[in-house]
Design brief:
single chain, about 350 residues, about 60% helix, extended
Length: about 350
């Protein structure tokens, strides 16, 4: 019994450490940095240790219901989801292997949740289709109905997130709130798992159609450069750097398939056809009004002047501030004229 308690306490401490590392990752912006990847590997390693302890203890059984699980055991249901979620962020030379590893963890998570009737039939059908790389999305094919379904799904996720945040404050003291908190957390994780599986299947399909990735980049260079480094001069060479100067036309390829002159992959016939009815000069790209607006924005048009510039505004006798300002201006001008009489500044040229 004491060994089980020690194992349980070590599991809880490992889970807390892993959750703490996961929270720290959410505050790092660059997922490709070495610091992020190092902390990511530590978090995955901690979650893997927790998963090993859960498997050795045979914590989950198909003969139990969700009510039979303790609150701390409910917390362990989300471990495979955390591993899968973090594995997708790994920077690996072989992306396909990382995706498949994440997919296996998602599969284990859905299987665990299905034991306790937490997965709906539509979600289970979508998950099974993911294992066979079939159609995953349970949304309707009609664009309008699909948009409404996505909006409803988004609202449900936001409601679950707000519920989780509100329950997280009370989950420390009340055990009932803790169970509600973990139920909401599992519900949100299941919805995010189905969405992640849909993206994984699409990405695997793209990777299957893409070029073969080499583990060592030098091997790829050796494949492409083997012909250029070959000592045999009779072998095929696709380089056109040493094209003879006298070749300025004629056939493009020799009988052996070797290029005789540089060429570009352009359909000149279609290019010439498109320029038949084209004017020789450059056509305008904007109207005169648009040009004037742009010039006005840049400050290239001087406003004012004309007949309206000579029209003075009518005097408002009720505006006391304006009249006081004009009076002070007139007084200052009179004082300036008294201090500086006309001609006082010109003392050199007086006759």
């Amino acid at each position: 019994m004491s060994e089980e308690l020690e194992q349980h306490s070590s599991l809880i401490s490992l889970l807390e450490d892993a959750d703490m590392l996961r929270d720290e990752l959410s505050h790092l912006s660059d997922s490709n940095s070495d610091a992020y990847q190092t902390k990511l590997d530590s978090a995955i390693s901690q979650y893997n240790k927790c998963q090993d302890i859960v498997e050795r203890a045979s914590m989950f059984s198909p003969n139990e219901s969700l009510d039979d699980l303790t609150t701390s055991d409910m917390r362990c249901l989300v471990i495979p989801f955390r591993i899968a979620e973090l594995s997708l962020k790994e920077k690996s030379p072989d992306r396909k292997v990382a995706i498949q590893r994440s997919m296996e963890q998602y599969k284990e998570f859905i299987a665990l949740c299905d034991l306790y009737d937490l997965v709906t039939p539509d979600e289970m059908s979508a998950a099974r289709n993911a294992w066979t790389k079939g159609l995953i999305s349970s949304l309707p094919p009609d664009p309008g109905a699909r948009r409404k379904a996505k909006i409803a799904q988004f609202k449900t996720e936001k409601e679950l997130e707000s519920k989780i945040q509100s329950l997280q404050c009370n989950a420390i003291a009340d055990e009932e709130d803790q169970r509600l908190y973990f139920k909401a957390l599992l519900r949100l994780a299941i919805m995010q798992t189905i969405q992640a599986l849909e993206m994984i299947v699409l990405e695997l399909d793209i990777l299957a159609k893409g070029p073969i990735m080499f583990e060592d980049p030098m091997k790829q260079g050796d494949v492409y450069d083997s012909r250029s480094r070959s000592p045999n001069t009779n072998t095929y060479d696709d380089k056109l750097d040493n094209t003879p100067a006298h070749i300025k036309g004629g056939t493009l390829l020799s009988k052996d398939g070797k290029p005789l002159r540089p060429f570009t992959l352009i359909n000149k016939r279609m290019q010439a056809k498109s320029g038949v009815f084209r004017p020789s000069h450059n056509l305008p790209t904007m109207t005169i009004d648009e040009y004037l607006k742009e010039e006005q924005k840049r400050g290239g048009i001087i406003e004012g002047g004309g007949e309206k510039s000579g029209i003075r505004p009518e005097w408002d006798e009720d505006d006391l501030e304006l009249s006081d300002r004009d009076t002070m201006k007139a007084r200052e001008w009179d004082a300036f004229k008294e201090q500086n009489p006309r001609g006082s500044g010109n003392t050199l040229n007086r006759g």
